């Protein structure tokens, strides 16, 4: 089941984000700061969408409205998908497809396009996302590049 997050989800979200971040760090990918803080996730709670299976949160994403991403302006307000995570026990079996489909439904209802980004140096992830979305730009950050996708 995919649903809006509630306050009772925060502990499971912290655990899942910390575990996923540890796995990324082990691979040399410094995508997120570690450890995740309760306050940080609580502030995002109204925008959090969780993927629950058998009373366990196995995935999550944040959907916010944006008019631009970094220096890339959008023609109109879009939904921006960020902090997409799948619990490491459920990775490599396309579970993020369920969250993408949920986001697509929201975009159809709202009449808004959906964008998301990822580190441009993660070729495996770029290939995965390219099968599900259109890559529209490579954007420079302070000391790295990100790929921007339209879902």
UniProtKB/TrEMBL annotation:
<dbReference type="InterPro" id="IPR016181">
    <property type="entry name" value="Acyl_CoA_acyltransferase"/>
</dbReference>
<protein>
    <submittedName>
        <fullName>GNAT family N-acetyltransferase</fullName>
    </submittedName>
</protein>
<dbReference type="InterPro" id="IPR000182">
    <property type="entry name" value="GNAT_dom"/>
</dbReference>
<feature type="domain" description="N-acetyltransferase">
    <location>
        <begin position="1"/>
        <end position="151"/>
    </location>
</feature>
<dbReference type="Pfam" id="PF00583">
    <property type="entry name" value="Acetyltransf_1"/>
</dbReference>
């Amino acid at each position: 089941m995919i649903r809006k997050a509630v306050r009772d989800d925060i502990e499971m979200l912290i655990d899942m984000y910390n575990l996923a971040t540890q796995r990324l760090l082990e691979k040399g990918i410094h995508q997120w700061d570690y450890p995740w803080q309760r306050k940080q996730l609580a502030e995002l709670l109204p925008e959090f969408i969780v993927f629950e299976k058998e009373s366990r949160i196995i995935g999550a994403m944040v959907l916010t409205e944006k008019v631009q991403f970094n220096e890339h302006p959008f023609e109109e307000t879009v939904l921006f998908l960020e902090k997409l995570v799948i619990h490491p026990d459920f990775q490599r079996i396309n579970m993020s497809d369920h969250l993408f489909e949920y986001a697509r439904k929201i975009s159809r209802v709202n009449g808004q396009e959906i964008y998301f980004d990822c580190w441009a140096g993660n070729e495996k992830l770029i290939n995965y996302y390219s099968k599900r979305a259109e890559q529209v730009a490579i954007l420079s950050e302070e000391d790295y590049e990100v790929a921007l996708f339209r879902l």
